[in-house]
């Protein structure tokens, strides 16, 4: 027989607790980081095991299916933004590790944002695109109505990809770069 449990994800639990005026120290008592790391927590299918998602990331890098730019910059931006806010007020903001391990952060950064068709062509463009996603995710998570923001952030930044590709162009093969004096 199948056995399943329905309940709030860690992000939803924290968002609801903060909305009800609970201090972060009380909310975080129920958070199991080992469970988040290994996948023994509630969450949507595909976002619950950071280890499995990161192993897939390493495999995709090894096979040269994706580059490191987008996933690393998204996760680093999320970590930096949340570290700043957590440093300012740890009773109202979650720590960076929680943000990276919870929700669809790794899933979105590695598997959704790196889509060939909707991501920029150049390395500089990928960094700008990923930075925008990381900032938008954290804005939605901290001050938006939803606990998660990865899908919205990717869709918003996908709208800017043509503009990024227009202004950050790759050097054409065989073209020499003229140095201005």
State the end-to-end distance.
75 Å
The major beta sheet can be summarized as: none
Tally of helical runs: 9
Mean pLDDT: 85
Shape: globular
Encode the helix/strand succession as letters.
Answer: HHHHHHHHH
| Main structural class | mainly alpha
Q: Which ranges are low-confidence, i.e. pLDDT below 50, for 5 or more consecutive residues?
A: none
Radius of gyration: 18 Å
Beta-strand proportion: under 5%
Structure description:
The protein is mainly alpha-helical. The chain has 9 helices and no strands. The model has no long low-confidence stretch (mean pLDDT 85).
Q: Which terms would index this structure?
A:
single chain; mainly alpha
Q: Outline of this structure?
A:
The protein has nine helices and no strands. By secondary structure, the protein is an all-alpha fold.
Q: What's the SSE blueprint?
A:
Blueprint: H1 10-19, H2 24-27, H3 33-38, H4 50-62, H5 69-88, H6 96-101, H7 105-112, H8 123-143, H9 150-167
Helix pairs in contact: 4-7, 5-7, 5-8, 8-9
